Amino acid sequence: MREIKLYKLEHFLKDAPSMSDLVLSEVSQSDIDDYSEEFQELTKQMSLDDDVMRECASTMREEVNFYWGDYEKQSKYIERMLRNEPNRVSDHYSQYTNPRTITRSVERAKEKVSNLGVVSATTGIGEKSVEDIDLAILFLMNEGFVFGTDFNAHNAVDIAKAKASENVVEGKMDNFEISSRACEECHKIASQPTSGFLKSRELMCECGSEHFEMKMSFGNEGKVFLKEVGE
Predict the structure, then answer these.
(1) How many CA atoms lie within 13 A of 153 on its CB side?
(2) In the chain, how many domains are there?
């Protein structure tokens, strides 16, 4: 009897269902095309494995019927199990997502990120220092992101800034340190995000009379620094 192969996909989009919108928004059509090509090969192998399982099921029915008879409880049990129960082949191949579903997920992610005003994470490594990248990676890992799945060294800084910006808007600023001049009215430094923070990265003072353009960077232990531009 032939053996089942249980073909495995290697393309990174096999993990698409667990990827964040930020990461999915950077998936290109070329990435999807490459995944689709691999998925076609997987579909062919799945069909072959299904044939093996059908041959195995047919043999099991014949054996049980021969030794216990067509209408004995053993035969009925085997028939019910083979007809309704999942098997190693179905369990294995069900973990992979159809390219059409991934395409829709990528389109939704791109639209969502675009609406948030998040800057595309396409800047090359050469434009950032190794320390900047390392600190951004530390921040993302503290936030629960997975290196190689949710981000990589090329886009770590931009994705970290996008995630930190979302945290500001959501009021999650326990690990932030802010530095700016004081407002002339309330004598307070920048502390509150403006409505357009995701695009402008501007904070305002407590009274709201002054807006401050902020520059973002990362530090040890997942710290985020917001410093007024020009300070």
Answers:
(1) 8
(2) 2
How many whole angstroms separate alpha carbon 139 and alpha carbon 21? 18
Task: Please give the C-alpha separations between residue 200 and each of 87, 109, 195, 216, in angstroms, as whole numbers.
Answer: 53, 21, 9, 12
**pLDDT digit string (tens) for the chain, length 231 residues:** 578 899 999 888 888 887 777 778 878 899 899 999 999 999 999 999 988 888 888 887 787 777 777 667 777 777 776 776 678 888 899 999 999 999 999 998 888 777 655 444 444 444 457 788 889 988 998 899 888 888 887 788 888 988 888 888 888 888 888 888 888 888 888 787 776 676 677 888 888 778 888 888 999 888 999 888 876
Domain extent for 36: 12-113
Task: Answer yes or no: are the C-beta atoms of 75 and 50 closer than 8 Å.
Answer: no
With respect to residue 72, please indicate whether it lies within any of the assigned structural domains. Answer: yes
Q: Note whether 166 and 215 are same-domain residues.
A: yes
148 inside domain: yes
SS3 122: coil
Same domain for 103 and 140, yes or no, is no
Whole-prediction pTM = 0.50
1 in a domain, yes or no? no
